[in-house]
């Protein structure tokens, strides 16, 4: 870890970068990098890039807030549409033009067609009614939901067409429409809201 932190400090001191950040690091690794930076007067990472979407919540909602408040680590999330699963296009199987149909994406196809994948599609059908009520697409609802989290400082988008990118960017206008009541409805449908384990009581 010391080698990694020294290397990025050197890159920044040479003027080749302004900051450095991590991606898919554990909280323990991030804290270790921060401790090494403090110990040797080096530059720590400023942000972590975790996966975050309606079906992947625990790290961003339970661990990242603690890191942010303790050492100021920002949060840049990726895959807000879960590789396209949250667009609703896999409701009736895997379309031939989709990413899951491409060579090398068998893992995604298997994930979609699995029992868990079918359960997720059923939940997405319920979420579609909320999206219709708000006047947005399921994809826009999914991205807006990520942006609504105060711990999330940036959501990284991926799009294969200009129209798709434009639609995704329109998600911004629906963030304020996600009221506590709507968020509660979403949580009820998903049934996966992370809960922090209680500390054991010692007597």
Automatic annotation (TrEMBL):
SUPFAM superfamilies: NAD(P)-linked oxidoreductase. It holds the Pfam family Aldo_ket_red. Gene3D superfamilies: NADP-dependent oxidoreductase domain. InterPro entries: K_chnl_volt-dep_bsu_KCNAB-rel, K_chnl_volt-dep_bsu_KCNAB1, NAD(P)_OxRdtase_dom_sf, NADP_OxRdtase_dom. Residues 1-189 form the NADP-dependent oxidoreductase domain. One of its GO terms (cellular component) is cytoplasm. One of its GO terms (biological process) is regulation of potassium ion transmembrane transport. This is NADP-dependent oxidoreductase domain-containing protein. It comes from Paralvinella palmiformis.
